[in-house]
Amino acid sequence: MLKTDSQPSNIDLDSATPTLHLLSQRRADFTTLVEALEYAAQGDTGYNFYDAKGRLRAVLTYRELRARAQATAKRLSGLGLARGSRVALVADTTPEFIEIFFACRYAGLVPFAMPVPVNLGSHAIYVRQLQGMLESSQASVAVAGLDFVGFLEEAASGENDNALKWCGTPAQLNLLPEANVTFAANSPEETAYLQFTSGSTRAPRGVVITERALMSNLRGIVCNGLKVRQGDRCASWLPFYHDMGLVGLVLAPLAAQLSVDYLATRDFAVRPLQWLRLISRNRCTIAFSQPFGLKLCTLRARESDLKELDLSCWRAAGVGAEMIRVDTLKSFAAKFSAAGFDERAFLPCYGLAESTLAVSFPALDQGAQSLCVDTKTLVEKKMAVRVQADGRKFNEFVNCGRPLSGHVVKIVDEDGQELPHMMVGSVWVRGDSVMDGYFNNPAETTRAIKPGGWLDTGDIGFVFEGDLYITGRRTDVIIVNGRNIRAQDVEELAEQQPEVRSREASAFGVSDRDGSTIVVLVIETRLASADDRQSLINRLQQMIYMAFGVNCLVELVPPHTLPRTSSGKLSRFAARQGFLHRTNIENLTAASTVG
Amino acid sequence: MSEITQAQITEQLCRRLADFTNAEMEISPETNLITHLAIDSVKLLNLVMEIEDHFDISVPLNALVDVLTVQDLSNLIYKIKSATK
């Protein structure tokens, strides 16, 4: 039964879907997503949605999901779209998003999730972001809830190159007539969905994930990574438009017929302890977060909160999606051990949307293992050697475990030649989970997929005794508070200012010792007057905030300061080195620059 | 809760923002939350929580995209309060 906001809010917890049920568990051994749902629909489990105060707001059993998705699929079929047409969904944490996502798969359409706006003053930039995705995907249908459909209509109107045939709310979609159709089965080679990788405003890239890739990754997560069993239950605040939220905490639980308890991302961010209360109350065993989410919990928890929590049920505390620092995990464990949290539950993993979601998992029940390597050898020889003597400087890296079965990771140098163990280089992945490419974007696809089917993740790391360690993310992506920001997007925003010429802006991230990253933007300018310079700095800071929700340090430098490569391209790596040298900022770790 | 005027909301908001940002500067309705007060995403979440608790309202995220100044924020709070009366 689906409950909506209009119903009384004092729903008894008993009406959430159960953890245990009679259907015998199948662990993601399906060939398509629809097949996984058809099986899960025979049981009693499903999705539960909680509000900011921790009250159950809606329940969507897998049985109900199947019925609703099929009905919606018939309505979508009535629009007469070609098989494989794209359907854009603004992905708020609602039952409707999941229903329409599965409706698309029944109807042979390709859904993709678009973000919800979160930043102050970001109206115009958010609309442009939606426009970019609608154009890049050539979506035929776009759906958003009441809160967001206005932005979608703005994005769809005006002079732009989209292919939209229908745009509206889930309620409006429900008014369309159901076509009398029989659904054709999906094949493993067909595209299951697209995943847009960052909130970029220009040329957003949609990762193409086939049914085969998805099912391979779900099997890896369910069987290798989590070793899911009867009695497991998940809790999540991760956004549905994020690969970890969608693949990890919507699709993977369904493929193993587990119940999930959701808290909207916004409600978690404002009151993070609600997530822990949900885990404690419903005895959840699996819950994932970015390190940033763990930090928020640690920051906000008071002694009185700890008393009411019992986190001893939490056996797999997955951590991923950004660089993991040991300190973040240690602080979280120190705080919440009083509430029964067992630090052996930590499961630091590595993955990316271009490989569906997961690449590697460590063994369960061992907690976060780390390796302290000698800083000098790391920087000078690009080699990870365990630190030998006391007093030597070291960098500590978290063990992200081994690749999923059927997947291989190798570390290569700048020429793509495989490096021996312990050497630091680019991380490449091969296996069934790797994307087909970026939608309609052969140039970017060629850049990412190397001969032999290897995916260049762009991340930097090494392998030690068979385990993968990540030492730095790619230089073209800045990760702040769990959000991926493309350096190029920041630079392009800057170049829209009349005072800034193209190729005179360089953006990168710098981290301080406690792991916080700030965005730095260095601009070459001839502006002399202090007022003009301050005006430019203010404008840039405001624009960057509105687009990405982060503060930015703007440095104005004389022309010809920024280092260029022989082909005249700006080198972000060198620009960053120069900035560090000029500002002589203490406390910046070498860790994120290695490679 | 008794009726609250828009002017009272603005005044309370300015006071809370002053505590919140530790800024030396005078906070007025025209103060820009981003450029003047440097409200980043973490501070924003804290601020939303304080506003929700203080004014006993729920602030929808989609409304914040049109907020730049203290006055904008005050208008939004007043609108939500009036709608939920």
From TrEMBL, chain A:
<protein>
    <submittedName>
        <fullName>Fatty-acyl-CoA synthase</fullName>
    </submittedName>
</protein>
<dbReference type="InterPro" id="IPR042099">
    <property type="entry name" value="ANL_N_sf"/>
</dbReference>
<dbReference type="InterPro" id="IPR000873">
    <property type="entry name" value="AMP-dep_synth/lig_dom"/>
</dbReference>
<dbReference type="Pfam" id="PF00501">
    <property type="entry name" value="AMP-binding"/>
</dbReference>
<dbReference type="GO" id="GO:0071766">
    <property type="term" value="P:Actinobacterium-type cell wall biogenesis"/>
</dbReference>
<keyword id="KW-0436">Ligase</keyword>
<dbReference type="GO" id="GO:0006633">
    <property type="term" value="P:fatty acid biosynthetic process"/>
</dbReference>
<comment type="similarity">
    <text>Belongs to the ATP-dependent AMP-binding enzyme family.</text>
</comment>
<dbReference type="GO" id="GO:0005886">
    <property type="term" value="C:plasma membrane"/>
</dbReference>
<dbReference type="GO" id="GO:0070566">
    <property type="term" value="F:adenylyltransferase activity"/>
</dbReference>
<dbReference type="InterPro" id="IPR045851">
    <property type="entry name" value="AMP-bd_C_sf"/>
</dbReference>
<dbReference type="InterPro" id="IPR040097">
    <property type="entry name" value="FAAL/FAAC"/>
</dbReference>
<dbReference type="GO" id="GO:0016874">
    <property type="term" value="F:ligase activity"/>
</dbReference>
<feature type="domain" description="AMP-dependent synthetase/ligase">
    <location>
        <begin position="59"/>
        <end position="439"/>
    </location>
</feature>
UniProtKB/TrEMBL annotation, chain B:
<dbReference type="Pfam" id="PF00550">
    <property type="entry name" value="PP-binding"/>
</dbReference>
<feature type="domain" description="Carrier">
    <location>
        <begin position="4"/>
        <end position="81"/>
    </location>
</feature>
<dbReference type="InterPro" id="IPR009081">
    <property type="entry name" value="PP-bd_ACP"/>
</dbReference>
<protein>
    <submittedName>
        <fullName>Acyl carrier protein</fullName>
    </submittedName>
</protein>
<dbReference type="InterPro" id="IPR036736">
    <property type="entry name" value="ACP-like_sf"/>
</dbReference>
